[in-house]
Design brief:
The complex is a heterodimer of chains A (about 300) and B (about 250). With about 300 residues, chain A is an alpha+beta fold. Chain A folds into 3 domains: about 90 residues, 2-Layer Sandwich (Phosphorylase Kinase, domain 1); about 150 residues, Transferase(Phosphotransferase) domain 1 (Transferase(Phosphotransferase), domain 1, Orthogonal Bundle), CATH 1.10.510.10; about 30 residues. Chain A is about 40% helix and about 15% strand. Chain A has 10 helices and 10 strands. Chain A starts with 5 loop residues before the first helix and ends with a helix. The mean pLDDT of chain A is about 85. Chain B is mostly helical and about 250 residues long. Helices cover about 65% and strands about 0% of the residues of chain B. Chain B is globular and about 65 Å long. Classes of the chains: A alpha+beta (about 300), B mainly alpha (about 250). The interface between A and B is medium-sized, with 26 and 43 residues.
């Protein structure tokens, strides 16, 4: 039997696993990442002379159901035209029989690592864009079901893109049997984790968005961040009815905080309200205080 | 125990299972003795080298001891029907086999008995010299976990057997060019001067487009053989997909 050295084994793995693109407009440049169903490669589109990302069904996923899921993902993404969603260019079957789709190659950094070096306001603005993309998908009847920092990419020019719609669910999709758990546990709503597929709605994504917000807030926030933490807490309510009704409302509440207001989810104490009032009207308060001080001095030194 | 001299001889034929029928793993639990023997032979063919190397490097047995242990393990597994008790829900067959092997070796050691060859004629005829030659210069698991080591050796045996099969199939079809292109480009390229399609075409006395097509054909056939053989060595679709991901993708760090 032929003995294969480690390097020969590696080359054969690559030869067997690399998608066959001969005769197509694409040539593989490198592997970018692997998911549950497919592998994403950077490829070159020889017709349009540009780099693209090619998602190809993983070798071994030979059953038609997997191919259908991949095509469904491509069609779902193609139907969602929004600046926060990756455009799909093309889909089909490679000469080796594997289903693929081509999409815009996103260069950037996942939210999970990008957030560490950013000020809070920047993180919250990026989060608002994630909410807006999710809200748009919801308005088209699509629930993502796997929103997490690793599935959000921050592009080189600050653009925010929501990726990996592989397990998304469209309103018109046939009901799934209960007990099916898909997604990532850490960012998953209780009804999704319990396999209650009948209860999965837009509010399920709202929970995941709340978990992303919680991740972005990090630990050890100053007292002022209590208000924004309450936004994450409301989004992550155990009962779907207690959460924000949609991702848009969640984004709006974050916006109120960024504008110096109070999120609807937060009940201020009198002291906090006074402090916030003082912060917002600092100049006027100083002017009034100065005026009063002068009046007091005048009364003291020029008493009739 | 079936006679496996022909089935497991190096380069010999092996019981291939069509993708739609019972896999070798399913067959080892069959009530039909013929089917069971064929399934067992296919398992031995795929796993004897990983088992031998594992025994040599993980358990530190010498050459003779490892030979006896390998043959003894498969003989005992067949007699006791261990492999038929595999349950896919608990993990891959590969891991199950390794755990069975660990149990067997621990029991043998505990009994303070030298790992003896099963009395009488050797039941499984295996070319241990080739396996020993592959261990030259290796004396440990090289920092890998036992499971990782066993997986890599299983992948090596699977790919190695697929290369042999590819050579036979392409030769039988008169596609020598395809195998030669595969051999020079993927299997054994000159590390100092890896070939380009153009240089490969010159070396093989053909055109670049013919060589490129031939290489694609060989790769497609190689992929098909690997996947067919892997499917026959897994119990169900779920295990097959998981194993394909683990064995064909980039090895886990």
């Amino acid at each position: 039997m032929t003995f294969l050295s480690d390097s020969a084994l590696e080359r054969l793995r690559l030869a067997a696993d690399t998608p066959e693109t001969a005769g197509t407009r694409y040539s593989i440049t490198r592997e970018i990442g692997r998911g549950g169903m497919g592998t994403v490669y950077e490829a070159h589109d020889s017709v349009l002379q540009r780099p693209v990302a090619l998602k190809v069904l993983t070798l071994g996923e030979g059953d038609p159901a997997a191919a259908d899921r991949m095509l469904k993902e491509a069609r779902t993404m193609a139907g969602l035209e929004h600046p926060g969603l990756v455009p799909v260019h093309d889909a089909g079957t490679l000469p080796d029989g594997r289903v693929y789709y081509a999409m815009k190659l996103v260069r950037g950094e996942p939210l999970s690592s990008w957030a560490a070096g950013q000020p809070m306001a920047e993180r919250l603005r990026a989060f608002q864009k994630v909410c807006e993309a999710a809200a748009f998908a919801h308005s088209c009847g699509v629930v993502h079901r796997d929103l997490k920092p690793g599935n959000v990419m921050i592009g080189s020019f600050g653009e925010v893109l929501v990726l990996d719609w592989g397990i998304s669910r469209r309103r018109e999709d046939p009901a799934e049997p209960d007990g099916v758990v898909v997604g990532t546990r850490t960012f998953m709503a209780p009804e999704q984790a319990a396999g209650r597929t009948d209860l999965v709605t837009e509010r399920t994504d709202v929970y995941s968005l709340g978990a992303i917000l919680d991740f972005l807030l990090g630990d050890g926030q100053p007292r002022a961040a209590k208000a924004i933490a309450s936004v994450a807490a409301r989004a992550m309510s155990a009962e779907p009815a207690d959460r924000y009704p949609g991702a848009g409302e969640l984004a709006a509440d974050v916006g109120r905080f960024l504008d110096g207001g109070v999120p609807a989810s937060y009940r201020e104490t009198l002291l906090e309200r006074a402090g916030r009032f003082a912060g917002r009207h600092r100049t006027a308060i100083w002017l009034v205080a100065a005026y009063l001080a002068v009046r007091v001095l005048l009364l003291l030194f020029f008493r009739p | 125990m079936p006679s496996m001299r022909d089935e497991t001889g190096i380069g010999g034929s092996r019981g291939r299972f069509p993708t739609t029928s019972l896999s070798a793993i399913g067959a080892v639990g069959s009530r039909d003795p013929g089917e069971r023997d064929r399934g067992f032979a296919a398992v031995v063919q795929a796993y004897w080298k990983p088992v031998y190397k594992y025994v040599r490097l993980k358990w530190g047995l010498d050459n003779e001891g490892a030979k006896d242990a390998t043959q003894g393990f498969f003989a005992r597994a067949f007699e006791k029907g261990w492999l038929a008790s595999y349950e896919p829900a608990k993990g891959s067959f590969r891991t199950f086999l390794r755990v069975c092997l660990e149990g067997f070796l621990a029991n043998e050691r505990k009994a303070a008995a030298r790992l003896k060859r099963t009395p009488g004629e050797p039941l499984v005829s295996l070319n241990f010299e080739s396996a020993e030659a592959e261990l030259v210069g290796r004396c440990s698991l090289e920092g890998r976990s036992p499971d990782d080591f066993f997986r890599e050796e299983f992948a090596r045996a699977l790919f190695s057997s697929a290369v042999e099969e590819l050579h036979r199939e392409l030769s039988a079809r008169g596609s020598e060019l395809a195998y030669q292109a595969f051999e020079r480009y993927d299997l054994d390229p000159d590390p100092e001067n890896p070939p380009s399609y153009a240089s490969l075409a010159r070396a093989l006395g053909s055109t670049e487009s013919r060589v490129t097509n031939a290489l694609q054909t060989a790769r497609r056939e190689f992929r098909r053989i690997v996947l067919e053989n892997l499917r026959s060595l897994t119990r169900d679709d779920s295990e097959f997909r998981e194993e394909a991901r683990r064995l064909l993708g980039k090895p886990s760090p």
